[in-house]
């Protein structure tokens, strides 16, 4: 049987519980890096029996003949049933020569054939063990979103032939399965039609989204079809304008009390950048007294890192607001990222920062500054216990971020124990 006859035109991805809270950056990365577009998605909580059925169908026959094979499936099922998952159906919508391929050793773009698309998908997912993936395929999904061999971030079918069966196990409604397959088939036929310049333009920009919407319209058959279709297009984002970000994005990092805010104020005054403090955004959310605000307040009091998806969502909204103000030359992102996964998710959802400022300061000097500030600031975290917890958190989580960023962008280390003017003279030279 040839690859052409077995390729169904889509893949099935299960975002496992350990990566569920990062599902939006993960899917954005899959699209931006290699053109994989969401056809259908749903949140699923797996039962042990259902999870084992899916995993057993994809197990190697040789391993299943041994007791260890069944034990392995049981362990994998335990991971899959540990929390919520996101089941996603994707198809590759962008020609290979229009995307940046993930493998650094790839000599040329793969052909847009079924076998080529399937190989690209497997390479995007990466080796089953995230530790291995971080060495041989550092920009694969498992390298970026996985933890260890069991909690590898994502699961997918073992072969092209297995995909239709897996679709039925992930979407247990036969009508929904048929609709997904019909939608993919209809889109593929339209895109493959080719033709005139006008048709090529439509194929590249609107045909896929519109065809998917029309397929769903036929399945739902609403009383007011045009109104329903308009709502669908708005929800899918097809009618939203492209997100505009400021020309320059700069990460500003340093321990608590290192002087980040003071130096940012000087940059804003001279160069007109916006200063966006991750901490200020979180404290503003606390003031709303929302459930999320109460969670943030408790974590700040404990000196813990607020979940990255909360900080990133607040930050993204602020950056989009700055991007709409066309006169803003750039944004100083103060106190972010605080963990490696935050740095990865920022790049997936938005774009890489242009560079990073890191203010180096001794723990003794930072504690002195914070205690002095605490006399007048009214901040609940400017007390000796919280300060020491923040120092420990900073060393354990933020310092590894620098190692990651130094492999991705330029990081400038600024000695920060001198006079304010002396420190700023070094900083200023980087913006001239």
UniProtKB/TrEMBL annotation:
One of its GO terms (molecular function) is nucleobase-containing compound kinase activity. Keywords: Kinase, Nucleotide-binding, Transferase. GO terms for biological process: nucleobase-containing compound metabolic process. The keyword Nucleotide-binding applies. It comes from the Eukaryota. Belongs to the adenylate kinase family. This is Bifunctional uridylate/adenylate kinase.
């Amino acid at each position: 049987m040839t690859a052409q006859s077995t390729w169904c035109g889509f893949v099935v991805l299960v975002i496992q519980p350990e990566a569920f809270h990062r599902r939006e950056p993960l899917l954005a990365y899959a699209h931006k890096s290699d053109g994989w577009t969401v056809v259908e998605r749903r949140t699923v909580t797996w039962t042990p029996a259902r999870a084992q059925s899916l995993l057993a169908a994809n197990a190697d026959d040789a391993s299943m003949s041994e007791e260890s094979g069944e034990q392995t499936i049981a362990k994998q099922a335990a991971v899959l049933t540990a929390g919520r998952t996101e089941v996603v159906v994707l198809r590759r919508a962008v020609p290979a020569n229009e995307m940046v391929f993930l493998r650094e050793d790839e000599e040329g773009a793969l052909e847009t054939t079924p076998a080529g698309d399937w190989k690209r998908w497997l390479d995007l997912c990466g080796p089953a063990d995230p530790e291995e993936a971080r060495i041989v395929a550092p920009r694969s999904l498992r390298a970026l979103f996985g933890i260890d061999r069991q909690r590898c971030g994502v699961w997918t079918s073992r072969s092209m032939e297995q995909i239709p069966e897996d679709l039925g196990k992930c979407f247990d409604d036969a009508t929904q399965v048929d609709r997904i397959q019909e939608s993919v088939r209809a889109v593929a036929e339209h895109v493959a039609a080719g033709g005139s310049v006008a048709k090529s333009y439509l194929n590249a920009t609107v045909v896929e989204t519109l065809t998917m919407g029309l397929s769903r319209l036929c399945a739902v058959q609403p009383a007011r079809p045009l109104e329903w279709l308009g709502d669908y297009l708005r929800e899918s984002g097809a009618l939203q304008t492209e997100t505009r970000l400021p020309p320059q994005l700069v990460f500003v990092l340093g321990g608590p009390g290192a002087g980040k805010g003071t130096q940012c104020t000087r940059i804003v005054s001279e160069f007109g950048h916006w200063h966006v403090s991750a901490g200020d955004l979180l404290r503003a959310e606390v003031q709303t007294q929302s459930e999320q605000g109460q969670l943030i307040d408790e974590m700040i009091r404990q000196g813990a890192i607020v979940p990255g998806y909360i900080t990133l969502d607040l930050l993204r909204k602020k950056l989009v607001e700055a991007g709409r103000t066309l006169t803003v030359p750039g944004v100083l992102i103060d106190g972010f990222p605080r963990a490696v996964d935050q740095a990865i998710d920022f790049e997936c959802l938005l774009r890489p920062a242009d560079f990073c400022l890191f203010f180096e300061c001794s723990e003794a000097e930072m504690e002195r500054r914070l205690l002095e500030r605490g006399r007048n600031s009214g901040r609940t975290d400017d007390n000796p216990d919280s300060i020491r917890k923040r120092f420990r958190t900073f060393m354990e989580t933020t310092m590894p971020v620098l190692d990651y960023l130094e492999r991705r962008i330029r990081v400038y280390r600024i000695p920060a124990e001198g006079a304010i003017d002396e420190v700023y003279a070094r900083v200023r030279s980087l913006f001239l």
